[in-house]
Amino acid sequence: MTSSAGRLRAVFAEPGIRVTACCFDALSARLIERAGFPLSFMSGFAVSAVRLGLPDTGLISFAEMADQGRNICAAVDIPVIGDGDTGYGNAINVKRTVDGYRRAGFAGVMLEDQVSPKRCGHTRGKQVVDRGEALARVRAAVDARDEGDDILIVARTDARGTDGIDEAIWRAQAFADFGADITFVEAPSDEMELARICKEIPTPQMANMVHQGLTPVLSPQRLEELGFKLAIYPFTPLAAAIKAMSEALAALAEGRQPVEMMTDFGELCEIVGFDDYYAAEDRYLGG
Asked: Is the pLDDT at 116 greater than 90, yes or no?
């Protein structure tokens, strides 16, 4: 049976760019799979929001993220990349994070060079560790992979926002030299910087398309032309869900039934697995 990491490698081996939305729980991951996306990405911002109701400022723990990821990965067959934040400590903690995410079922893990507590890449107050610590994190992650953890390493730098694009590209190049499978320069400011990233860094590149964020939101076709292999939309499912729930709750509060906003009950039951459950129940009925 092919591992989740093997399935992710197969997805990236296909020509063209891969596009996906980010999940935050088992249900959102299942909806992403049902929509036909070949993979997903578990967003730390979104998980912190739905699990804790708190901002993505390093408040959520390794154990909480791994637990959320375990449920997500068990709910779908597509490979999922997990947001590993800063690795939750020093290089030894990074190795444990990689191993824990692999055990949870993730196909890949993203690790970044921010100081702890980290910040969402498109919010204020970011700081990055020095080059030595950043490289040690990637070395530890790659060592964990090479010592038996079958998982892809996505190495992220936030140095664009603190030290400029040249430093960010230097770091991503170094991450690639250390063996990262995918590199990710967060929050480039324009299309010229996006083009430089793909031209100057040898590994496959990921683009983070945040509506109203710091990076211009380009079409998948344009991102592919620039050389990107993966484009993620981190907030689309969460933002759409919040808007839909808010409008439906406002209608209920006014005494109206928001039927037109709701998924049909039969479809809802099918999505969460009642049909499969009933089939299994019938199989074992009567012993």
From this structure: no
- What is the model's pTM? 0.95
Written as one letter, the residue type at 250 is A
Question: SS3 for the chain, per residue?
Answer: CCCHHHHHHHHHHCCCCEEEEEECCHHHHHHHHHCCCCCEEECHHHHHHHHHCCCCCCCCCHHHHHHHHHHHHHHCCCCEEEECCCCCCCHHHHHHHHHHHHHHCCCEEEEECECCCCCCCCCCCCCECCHHHHHHHHHHHHHHHHCCCCCEEEEEECCHHHHCHHHHHHHHHHHHHCCCCEEEECCCCCHHHHHHHHHHCCCCEEEECCCCCCCCCCCHHHHHHHCCCEEEECCHHHHHHHHHHHHHHHHHHCCCCCHHHCCCHHHHHHHHCHHHHHHHHHHHCCC
Kindly indicate the confidence band of residue 194, based on its pLDDT and cuts at 50, 70 and 90.
Answer: very high
Query: pLDDT value at position 93?
Result: 97
Tell me the two tokens of residue 152: 């892809």
The span from the CA of 264 to the CA of 270, in Å, is: 10
Q: Which tens digit of pLDDT belongs to each residue from 136-179?
A: 999 999 999 999 989 999 999 999 999 999 999 999 999 999 99
Closest CA to 263 of 239, 237, 236, 245: 245
Q: What are phi and psi of 191, to 5 degrees?
A: -65, -30
Tokens of 46: 């979104």
